[in-house]
Amino acid sequence: MKRLVLTVLLLPLALPCTAASDGASNRATAHISFKVHVPPVSRILQTTLIAGGYEHRVWANTKPIVINGKEYRFTRVGETTLFVPSSKDAFIVQGL
């Protein structure tokens, strides 16, 4: 009984929708696109002093990173080990 009453009440609302569903408009096409901008991030996870410099365990979401104004390129994104020769009064400046 509730279904019948509900159907009778909603039937007048459904009739205008049938006008848009004639034979010519049985297809719909759409195109959607979006871009995701990911800022470059690099982190120095561990630094170890070795003979002649420092060995850094680095994680980056881009292949090239900049340390002390010098660009280092890696073969893949993710974690890698990097050797940076040391000199007197050297500071590591992590850049993007």
- Rg, rounded, reads 31 Å
What's the SSE pattern?
HEEEEEE
CA-CA gap between termini:
68 Å
The number of strands is 6
Q: Which percent bin holds the helix content?
A: 10-25%
Sheet bearing the most strands, described? Answer: 3 strands, antiparallel
- Net shape: rod-shaped
Give the spatial strand order of the biggest sheet: 1-2-5
The fraction of residues in strands falls at: 35-45%
What's the total helix number? 1
Low-pLDDT stretches: none
Structural class: alpha+beta
Please tell me the overall pLDDT: 77
Written account of the structure:
By secondary structure, the protein is an alpha+beta fold. Helix content is 18%, strand content 36%. It has one helix spanning 2-18; strands at 42-50, 53-60, 64-67, 70-73, 78-85, 94-95. The strands form two sheets. A three-stranded antiparallel β-sheet has the order 1-2-5, with no helix packed on it. Strand 3 and strand 4 (70-73) form a beta hairpin. The mean pLDDT is 77.
